[in-house]
Amino acid sequence: MIGYILLPFRGIIRAMGVDFDQLCSILTIKIRMDNRRSLSLSKKKTESNNQLWLQSLVYAFLGGILVASLSKIESILVTYTIFFAFIMIMIAMLMISEFTTILMDTRDNNILMPRPINSRTLVLAKILHIAFYMLHLSFSLSLVMLVSTLISHGFVASLLLILLLVLSALFTLFLTNIFYLGLMNVVNGQKLKDIIVYFQIVMAILFMGAYQLVPRMMEMYDLSNIHMNIEWYSYLIPPVWMSAGIDAYISTNYTLTSLIFFLLALFVPLISLFFVIKVLAPKFNKALSQLDTASNKKVKSKVETKNKTNFIDQLATLFTKNSEEATVFKMVWLMSGRERKFKQTVYPAFGYIFIFILMFLLKSNETFSLEALAASKKYLFFIYMPIFLSFAVTQNLCYSDQAKSSWFYRALPLALPGTILRGSFKSGMVKYYLPVHIVIAIICLFIWGYSILDDLIYSALCIILLTSLIQSWQQPQLPFTAERETQDIGGNFVKGILLLLSIAVIGGIHYGLSFLPYSVLIAIPILLTLVYLNFRSYRKITWEKVLN
Amino acid sequence: MLEKLPAIISIRNLEKSYQNGRIENKVLKGIDLEIKPGQIIGYIGPNGAGKSTTVKILCGLLPDFEGDVEILGFDLRKDATEIKKHIGYIPENAALYDTLTPREYLQFVGELHQINPNTIPTKIEKLLDLFDMKDHADERLNSFSKGMRQKILIISGLIHNPKIIFMDEPLSGLDANSVIIVKEILTQLAKEGKTIFYSSHIMDVVEKISDRIILIDQGKVVADGSFAVLNAKDHSGSLEKLFTELTGTTGHSAKAEQIINAFEN
After folding, report:
1. CA-based nearest residue in chain A for residue B117
2. Do A32 and B93 make contact, defined as CB atoms within 8 angstroms?
3. Between B70 and A183, whose confidence is greater?
4. Between these two residues, A522 and A218, which has the higher pLDDT value?
């Protein structure tokens, strides 16, 4: 199919010194692999376009939310400026978070580099692969806007929008290229992968934030009369260049300013494309070819500070019962901070908690006041928020990037695996859940005063009990020993529903107890006993019951 | 006879450094070699000696190097693409496109080498069969064991019938039968006039198959010749002993004793 798409350009491609057949082979294989990326392990060959279609749907949905939110704005210039800013930021962020693994695939060094492919073919293949991905992204994100423009402003306006979308994608390509080259100059391959993980975490939080908060904020503030004045700095903002052209056409207001903006929108991306092909792409390929070798030849590895280890030792002594449990506690503490996949899955939960709290605060239509908040019982909502984090942590501790280390546990002289499971659970909860609960507790104490101290202890015990119950009810898995591909998505969904129901129940009970004097104080020792008994039940788990 | 033939690989003062921040790590410190056609070269050395770096440079994977390299009469800097048409590379780490099947992957490699598209499927079928991989032809590579992946790498390095074959620990992960077959293939290929550049630290295999052994240490050639010639000089008796003597890593028994003591105390 790629061959047919590129066939009309065959002459030009060959004139550039590129081998047309090799180019088509590389692009076909690359796109086939993109389609199969992140599909579950399948032994049989399965031809599927699901991944790209699924992504398109998600992006189109996101774009749709934005368009719905922008529909109230009257100014065309403001609407399209926000839209292009959204497109450019999203493309850049998605390129970095989703496409990096493809873009920085160092396997190409061993697979493509030894083949008789000239550098022009390699460079063009990479650029076209990126271009395909970027266009797929930008058209998915803009699908709703394109339809809306077609209906509201006609065919020519939507054609103009397509042109401007392509140009903004090109300019974003230039910016991301500079970002990558800058990063590759200062960090090695491993560090780069770590930075990308943090980008992915930020993206996950932004997605959730945009989905939950933007429509609410749009409702709260009157955006219908927002207008934008053209100042000197407007000439430095690329989304304004893009939107000015479409604004001039729709409002039939052709001025010198709009002409300048349109020319900037047209020529800056084209010049930057030329710069990408001539200068950045070859530099990028060269940097990439040295990325894995340079990181392999790392001269000095990171040294962990002694102070940090001492701190973990002290925590392990405080929270564990014996030396084996303490060892697992320390190991899980260190590993969880270094496993990229774990961070990628769990860290967004920190952001989600913040978003849920904001969402709850923005929900009420009355103006925000600390006095009104202090008079309410909303703390009962806030203090149960960390449960999402405790759930995310404990459910993901078993997965690893290199999940072949379960032999290590089985080789240990331990009669029962309960110690490992308990040490792992405690480590995850102390490292991730406890600090968040403490921060929320401090804020709540500041707003509601010491009278809610018993509620804070009660909620912490409830969360620990509920999380450990969910842990012990499911088939136990040793820390960092399972392949992520084996993750039971359906099972997780059921667990998620159960968790939400349980939160509703324990929150409801807590709310009821808050009306009975001293009832929460009386419930605390009962909960403590239940937590203790549940931890003791770990001792009954046999090696046969452990999944991996 | 061999001396009269022009060199198929000619390396003069080859140097290579890796930059890590401000620290420069010089891996190759001036390698000079002339390799004649039809030879099996055993390229050995301790870890970090520069074996893989040399192989990667010769295969055009690392374009930044100092010195001059000519392969088949072509300058590596100017005519890398032309050279790559005639060489095969089998790396140690089985880097493959995991979401593809062996059939798809080998078809892709065949197309890149511009083999006649009509003959590629038949060739793939035959090679997969010979390597006992026919039953796995349509399974994805990510489900393969290390040895199975290594077989696919070997096929992909030889599918275009190259004149020179560069191998970097090619037997890694292969079972005993496959090792014997690959060793036999190498001997047969050399008989057909192919040149084989075999980088490894498995002394036993190198000693048995190589016409000429080149030992490098800390980026320099420290010994060069057939095993018989090298042995005649040093009277070591085996390549392993020769290796330890020339790389200055003697006293293994004492070290082993120290390690055991460390475990016991």
Report:
1. A21
2. no
3. B70
4. A522
